[in-house]
Amino acid sequence: MTKSTDHQMPELDFNTPALKRHRKIRALKDRMASMGIAVGGNSVILAVLLICFYLLYEVMPLFSGASIEQQASYAVPAEEQGDSVYLSAEEQSEVGMRVTSLGSIVFFSIADGSVINTVENLRTDAKVTAFAVESDTSRLIAFGYDDGKALIVKHDYRTSYPDGKRKITPIVEYPYGEEPIDVADFPINKMSLRDGSDSLTVVAIGDSKSAITKVSKDVNFITEEVELSEQITELPFVADTASVLISGDQRYLYVATRSGQLSEFDLRDFDNITLKDNISLFNDDAKLVSMSYLLGQSSIMVADSSGRVSQWFNVRDNATNEEHLTFIRDVKQPVALVGLAMEQRRKGFATLDERGIVAIYNATSTRQVIDEKLTDDSARLISFAPRANGLLLEDSKGLHFFYVDNAHPEVSWSAIWGKVWYEGYQEPTYTWQSSAANNDFEPKYSLTPLAFGTLKAAFYAMLMAVPLAICGAIYTAYFMAPALRRKIKPIIELMEALPTVILGFLAGLFFAPFMEENLAATFSILVVLPVGILLFAYLWSRLPQKVSWLVPEGWQPLLLIPVIVLLAWFCLALSPVIELNFFDGNIRGWITNDLGITFDQRNALVVGFAMGFAVIPTIFSITEDAIFSVPKSLTQGSLALGATYWQTMTRVVLPTASPGIFSAVMIGMGRAVGETMIVLMATGNTPIMDFNIFEGMRTLAANLAVEVPESAVGSSHYRVLFLAAFVLFIFTFVVNTIAETVRQHLRKKYGSL
């Protein structure tokens, strides 16, 4: 008799206090983890957006418009002294000066027009018939008289602080004595002067004659006094002269007629002054209004009655090695101009037309920053304050002072990304040169050579890194023995920990000169090494199996180490022989002279090796992980169906791992684009646009590292550097976006494998 017992399982209680407490704690941890991940992710996104907005905040003022605002208006100070022929202001824009047609100098308060001091006609025995300004910055002016003499005067300003308040006292000085200088034997109608450290040149033009005077300055070594000696010679006469200019180096004289014919004289041989060239400044029926030098005395600005202002400067002809005055660019107003004023510290100028509209331009960028009507009455003169933050304007009602806010006129899209014809250059170029040793410098803010240098450095680095890193990762992940892989992979990844400053140091101070001395070896290694490795692999495959099986499967790469060392030593040993027999013992000279290719010791080839070495670990590590992560079932299934290892690799493994491989390449490229120290120390930092592998470059990142600490906060240079950083940011963003798009496409395409 069988006895059956019914065993009933006890019911589990999932609502005990301990389990409830455990579930609450776990739910709390889940919420905290979710919140932490969300906060961290959003913080990263917010940080990136804040960086972007901050860069835009610093960049936007470059392209903001200028403004002009009237500060004071009053009757012409000391109007009884005559009509104004010249206006000026001192550094602080507190004291103004006007020169009158009667030869008087009137100093006045810019705030209210009250007269501070008046220096009346300096000569009572002669009549003023001409007036000239050496330059606004030198403050040197000259009066020409009807007896053929000229008096040179300098206006200056002394600052004192009585009772703790600033007081500016204007003074008049006579750098060449209070007695006038004989410059002609006829009444002077037009004149010009140019002062230098060694001599003073004065040109006087009358009704039918013209003369030039050179005052040489000799220092007495005993008394250390400056002794002056005059030399006068006659000039070829130019009828109907409207304007006269002497070049800043006193080598050339320019005489322009009212119809726009310009005669250029060579002054280098003072005893035999010859007509060098004769050109037309404009081809229509316009009349010359004004002709004056831009800052630096290199560019001549010509204003005519048609409303056009054209820029001219000397350009050297390579065929004749002679300089010729060349038209560069122009700007246009719709009506006739009546005045032209130059900025004293920038390449800017202002035009005044007969409608009373003032337009302010920058000559380099050709950017118009202001075009406003400032007066309803007939305007006569305009003049900039020394800092270009103020503008004096005289019309029939009186004198007006305007505050000008114009911080960055030299920056425009065309100046940043387009070709610009800079002073002293033979043609328009892409140039970056943000500073120089003199104050007359023309800033060159073209980002094109920096962007080109960035792409060039990244190209050569990726050209070296991508094949080595990807091929190495394929072999390590798929063919190498697991025991060897566990040693090789960490060693290669450890390379990424090397500071790039050390790599740059070694590349610039060791590898660059070593490569220059062994150019033949460098190029022979690039050929011999791959051929030698393939030849060794072929010979190894032809060895008897009892020999080849002595090396375990997957350990064969260790045999390449002595092969590579031996081949490299062979190329280095053979380098002098190759150079002597094929390149006359000087391969660098052969490259430069025979091929016409310039060679710089720190060049793109050096950067390719050094930066490629830095990028290889990144690409290798990500690619190796992507290949190694391909499911073994796919490879085993492919092999089971009869595919070889190579067919499995190329048709199964690589397509499956392609999203990861593409990401590795893009991350490596981002690393190459943003690299700073290697390109800073191994390229020579020359911002040139040349794809020559033997020339250096300057990248955006290296330029930021070099120049940001030296730039003045808020200056155009400072903000253009932030624009370069923004360009680098946008470039990285675009590359990453494209990379993610392609990666998602590849994942979707090969995800079904």
Description:
Helices cover 37% and strands 27% of the residues. By secondary structure, it is α+β, with helices and mostly antiparallel strands. Strand 6 and strand 7 form a beta hairpin. It has 15 helices and 31 strands. The mean pLDDT is 88. Helix 4 crosses helix 10, helix 6 packs across helix 8 and helix 10 crosses helix 12. The strands form 8 sheets. Strands 6, 7, 8, 9 and 10 form a 5-stranded antiparallel β-sheet that branches.
* Shape designation: elongated
Average pLDDT over all residues: 88
Helix-and-strand structural type: alpha+beta
Tally of helical segments: 15
- What amount of the residues lies in strands? 25-35%
> Unreliable segments (pLDDT under 50, ≥5 consecutive)?
none
What does the largest sheet look like? 5 strands, antiparallel
Please tally the β strands and state the result.
Answer: 31
- Rounded to an integer in angstroms, the radius of gyration calculated over CA atoms is 38 Å
Keywords:
single chain; 753 residues; alpha+beta; 5-stranded antiparallel β-sheet; 4-stranded antiparallel β-sheet; 15 helices; elongated
